[in-house]
Amino acid sequence: MRFSGISARFVPNIASGGLLGRRALPRQFWLDGLAFMLVATFLIFISWGMSEMSAPLRRLHQDPISLDIAYLPEYAMRTTLRMLIAVCFSLLFTLLYATLAAKSRKAGQLLIPLLDILQSVPVLGYISFTVTAFMALFPDSMMGVECAAIFAIFTSQAWNMTFSLYQSLRTVPHDMDEAAFVFRLSGWQKFWKIEMPYAMPGLIWNMMISMSGGWFFVVASEAITLGNQKIMLPGIGSYIALAISERNMSAIGWAITTMGIVILLYDQFLFRPLLSWSDKFRYEQTAGEEMPTSWVRQLFIKSRFTRKFLIPFVWISRIVLRIRLFAPQVPNFHFTTRESKLFDYLWYLLLALAFMISARYMVGFFQNSVTWADVLHVASLTLITLIRVVVLITLASLLWVPLGVLIGLRPRLARIVLPLAQFLSAFPANLLFPVAVMLISYYNANPDIWLSPLMVLGTQWYILFNVVAGASAFPNDLLDTARNLRVGGWLWWRKLMLPFIFPYYLTGAIAASGGAWNASIVAEVVSWGNQSYTATGLGSYIAQMTQAGDYVHIVLGIGMMALTVVLFNQCIWHPLYELAARKLRMG
Amino acid sequence: MAEMLLELKNVTQSFTKPEGRVLKVLDNIDLTLHEGEIIGVLGKSGSGKSTLLRIIAGLTTPTTGSVSHKFKSASRDALDIAMVFQTFALFPWLTVLQNVQLGLEALGVPEKEMRRRALEAIDLIGLDGYESAYPRELSGGMKQRVGFARALVVNPSILLMDEPFSGLDVLTAETLKTDFLDLWLERKIPLKTVMLVTHNIEEAVLMSDRILIFSANEGHIAAEIKVDLTYPRDRQSASFSAMVEQIYTIMTSGMLKRGLSTARTSEISMHDKLPRVSPNQLAGLMEELAGPPYNGRADLPALDQALGLGTEEVLHLVDALRILKFADVAEGDIHLTSTGQLFADADTQKRKQIFAEHLLHNVPLAAYVHRVLQSRPGKHAPRIRFVTQLEDHMTEDDAIEALSAVTSWARYAELFAYDDNSETYNLENPEA
Lengths: 587, 432
Hints:
heterodimer, A: mainly alpha, 24 helices, B: alpha/beta, 6-stranded mixed sheet, 3-stranded antiparallel sheet, 15 strands, elongated
């Protein structure tokens, strides 16, 4: 899914850690025991997962995916591990890419537009191209296919994290920057001591959103069909794919339950602790805001075992942090800083050359196999999908904006609804295929119209999230004023609420429309057993070309989609966003 | 007797805290608003004065009791009660004119008349030329003028003001007060009654005909004072100062009566509320008191004026000095005790030592935490242990507040330490 660095505006939780209430903290012994169990389980889990992942490739044929629920826990763990690895790589990528883009103006000029394009390429677009390459890299081992799956998940996670870090790095408050300068922190120290802590809340929050995005593509990343190659990696995604092709309703039910449990565990054991930890880095503390709490984090802080266990890591990090890599800025008392423009021109020349070479290469790639008729055809398909996206985002907005406002003004309700919506946003559209197929065949409905809702199924929640967040941030004194002046009805919506939540809504709508494009590849072709329906559009075109293994036309479709999304962002969302930011500046 | 406008009977407002305790913010309030008066409401924050205002405005429904209007609505295009907020509460995306028109729009006043009335109000309050400005372009004083214009444009009978001047600097506040008083006294606005909530005693004496003083934490009116001085009132005059002094004494003695278990001494028990003030501020105040012109003794209102911290803050500081037995209060005067004097003259290390001794002897909670820590083998104890224990006798908020105060004092005195990460108290030196 695509997000242009969503800010940590609201923090829904799946279940607040009430299991071990503050009062009922067990004694030190139990604390230590529990903490030890958690750490040991984690280590065993990792080593088991790694050995499974590097098993020989024939295992895939020896032990095909089974719908027996006894296998589900194992599948769940495999999927969990894949997502964990993917998120680690996303983090690594984010640290390198965003830092480079933020620190070097020249690199930023190239890297940021590139990132914009990268996040506009549909997740499923990446997989078609990487499977063969990764399989060639690890012949006869599952590792190749695993890598392709992990890479696909990575592509659904990395971009918005990178945007978030980049934006944070660019907006580090001036006084912190000056403090670093005055105390002569090296570049390395400044990054870890000042910039990263500042960026942390936003980064963790986007990591959480990314995880939902990853789940949405879990089926597509594990059950890979490319031309005549059909690969099914053991995991929940493959389980769902098999259940769909075998029309096994109860298996679908079990898959949903398992996913729910895994998401809950992820929340409790990874994101809650991270959120509660990152809260201390929050630069602006608004009094009265609830601090995220986590029983797992409390357990780790209070247990002596984990403290001892962590000592070596703390030591290492202290040593690493002392490294004086990248010299500190030195005060410049000589005012002769007219930088040579020569280097700039050289850089632009290099960029222009690179552009020309790649353009030449692209023309060569398409020249012999793509006709103008093809391009026109794909363009018309793009238009159809575009209409779908616009109509559905509009419908979702008409539904969720008023509901979101009503929920947001009731904090207690919001605390129930938000985690639920976050939960729902993670569920892959594939899970609703049976329902869609049955309804369409029963009512003999037109798939061109009635398949469309599947596109916004997962992404509509971003509108709800953000509108709820916006409405709950509506200042109380303004609400009081409105009540005192008896402002009600349409006047209230038009003059007061809608202008206020507009920027929040935009954040949600941008995420939702990006996600809808992405989901179109899954949602425009649905099947349930041997029954299948196709909606005409760019998504189904890409899906069909992928089935056929027709690389040239896959590239054409994906390129067109990326181009449309980039243009849509640049021409519509960005100007709107800037308008909102200008209008709403408080104070 | 002037006409009665609004009457509150037996109004009680209480909240049930999550742990089931009932907290009374207002307790059985009877109050009548008459035509032609400005009523000042004084009290510390949390004394229920703002809640009272919200109840009159209809923003909050009281738990029990009744509010009855004794007036007929002037017309369909006027609002009975309008309000001015401390935070200005302007809508940042609306221009000055649009902000002012909002209430008229809600009343359904026709476009042309709405514009005329809004421009008139803007004119009246001195905002000419700013009609198309956005609030962010205005200074604080101008913003509050918009707040006034917005409230006055709907021709209310009653104007409620919730600390309208406390968000402004002294000079701006002064001009705005005088301007408003001029409008009121010259009857340029059809207002019948004004209710002004404030924590500034001088402001209340300057503007009101009648002052209600709320007692802290008990939710009832401790005293009602009629101000018979003629407008415009002169702050320098003897009668003005005498009135300020009188109110000051009432408020400080009210303070003595509440939290502190016995009115005459400053002995407190473990379950008394503690003011949350920083030790550095306490040290600063003692230095101030020890030096000239006070030389160990000061008139409280004068001291308040000189410090410029706000009455409430000063009362908290005085409260803390009394509890720690560094100072004593009598008849509106504060004077340093001998150890208070000693403290003021000492160097940093000596000060910490004196502070630690006083903390142990005079603040039972500090002594208790210290004792528990000493008796434990690891010399540390979780914070929750103390919170839970305190909660048996006080509300959760008060317990946390008291514990925070003790923590900050004990840190200064190096009596014990607290680790916020693990939420434990300990006697060890802080980890490196």
